[in-house]
């Protein structure tokens, strides 16, 4: 299930290199995945605006909303479209610019040790079956390539500042599809706070 990797690029995704990345701190274990949601303009799906945003090619004058984010330079490692297609913008070995000001379990600057996955969708909205299927495939590949221990949403690492992917994302569905320990997921964080999370099962 791992499929092929080459220097942090996954063969299961369309490669679209972003200039918005940097080096991770030396000897950093990449053990966290952060799930986001994005659509540009908000609530509109299927276009190439997100792709253009992540590659610094967005026409800021093409839509009034784009003026509110004019000049921003961001990226994610992966983008999962509504139809399940997966695009990759940054090698998982590098630091993508997706989390911003963030912290998880006492560690700040989550970009340093995490992989960012954007789902095409509206914050708080629901997601498509094809996206859950694709997301599980990405997670299995990642778990075979990196020492993952936790999966969270942007809302969990930047509470009060971010709310994605939001209430419409089905964490239980993802967990049951993968067959990973509940301690890897945010809905049980309060129960297991202070305990070591279980490693994902790559055989699931």
UniProtKB/TrEMBL annotation:
Its EC number is 3.5.1.28. SMART domains: Ami_2. GO terms for molecular function: metal ion binding; N-acetylmuramoyl-L-alanine amidase activity. It is found in: Cytoplasm. Residues 18-166 form the N-acetylmuramoyl-L-alanine amidase domain. Keywords: Cell wall biogenesis/degradation, Cytoplasm, Hydrolase, Metal-binding, Zinc. The keyword Repeat does not apply. Its main location: cytoplasm. Its cofactor is Zn(2+). GO terms for cellular component: cytoplasm. PANTHER family: 1,6-ANHYDRO-N-ACETYLMURAMYL-L-ALANINE AMIDASE AMPD, N-ACETYLMURAMOYL-L-ALANINE AMIDASE AMID. This is 1,6-anhydro-N-acetylmuramyl-L-alanine amidase AmpD. It comes from Hydrogenophaga crocea.
């Amino acid at each position: 299930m791992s499929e092929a990797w080459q220097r942090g690029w996954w063969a299961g995704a369309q490669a679209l290199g972003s200039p918005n990345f940097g080096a991770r701190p030396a000897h950093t274990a990449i053990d966290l995945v952060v799930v986001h949601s994005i659509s540009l303009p908000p609530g509109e799906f299927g276009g190439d605006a997100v792709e253009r945003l992540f590659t610094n090619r967005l026409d800021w004058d093409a839509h009034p909303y784009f003026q509110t984010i004019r000049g921003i330079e961001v990226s994610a490692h992966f983008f999962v479209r509504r139809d399940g297609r997966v695009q990759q913008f940054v090698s998982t070995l590098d630091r993508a610019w997706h989390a911003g000001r963030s912290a998880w379990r006492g560690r700040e600057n989550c970009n340093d040790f995490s992989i960012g996955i954007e789902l095409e969708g509206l914050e708080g909205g629901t997601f498509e079956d094809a996206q859950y299927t694709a997301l599980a495939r990405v997670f299995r590949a990642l778990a075979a390539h990196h020492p993952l221990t936790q999966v969270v949403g942007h809302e969990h690492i930047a509470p009060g500042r971010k709310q994605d992917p939001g209430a419409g994302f089905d964490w239980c569905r993802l967990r049951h599809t993968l067959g990973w320990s509940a301690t890897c997921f945010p809905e049980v964080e309060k129960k297991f706070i202070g305990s070591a999370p279980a490693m994902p099962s790559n055989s699931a």
